[in-house]
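To the structural biology subgroup,

Please find below the input and predicted structure for OmpR/PhoB-type domain-containing protein, which we are adding to the shared reference set this quarter. The sequence is reproduced verbatim from the submission form. If anyone notices a discrepancy with their own records, reply to this email rather than editing the shared folder directly, so we keep one authoritative version.
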Amino acid sequence: MPGPSISASDISRLGSRAVVWGIAAIVGVLVLTAVLLFLNLPDAGAFNARVERVFVENADLTSQAEIKLLEILAQSGTAFSETLVSYRIVIFVLLVFATGLLVTSLVMIVLLITLNRRMAMVEKQGLQVSQLVIERATNSVAINDMEFKLTPAAVETLAVLAEARIDDEVLTGAAIEAVISGRLEVDCDEAAGATRIKRLRDTLGNQLISEVLVKNIARQGYMLAIDSKVISLR
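Predicted structure (tokenized):
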């Protein structure tokens, strides 16, 4: 009896739910922290209430010095209240910033994990090319929805590899150099063709595309790791 299987869509849904629950947990923890923190902060009007109580309980204080002291206490209470209000604002801003930072970090970690998995799949299965168009006249190459401007030598190298892929052939470095230079293969150096492949990869720029698109088969040569039906030479 076959065991239960999990599809890619199920994994994707589980990952999305994990992200949502992770974000909700972060926000919940920070909200709870903010509530507890604000509840335990002293009341901004506590000092003024104590000063007012002093005024009420010491109504017989009538000398100039005593009145001045009470005024100083009242001003201190107002300053204390304003300081507490500013502290509350600062704490609130810091909590909002921390929430945004943690949520962004979680999302970025999930995106990096997803990207790494996709790159691993590409490296394992090969580049999924639905269309490869080589324009010799404009020295440009279109791979799926990406367009590259190449040098004439790089375009010629890629065109030779494309024609070989259509014929289901693997070309050595010497064979590539022979086709491009028009000389006999025995008169060409393997290193010359390898140099052309390296320059092609350098021109493509994107290491993932260049390394996966142009395959190096040990002791056989080079070939394009794509379906010959998607190749178009112009």
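Summary notes: Confidence is low (pLDDT under 50) at residues 1-8. Residues 132-233 form a domain with the Arc Repressor Mutant, subunit A fold (CATH 1.10.10.10).

Regards,
Lab coordination
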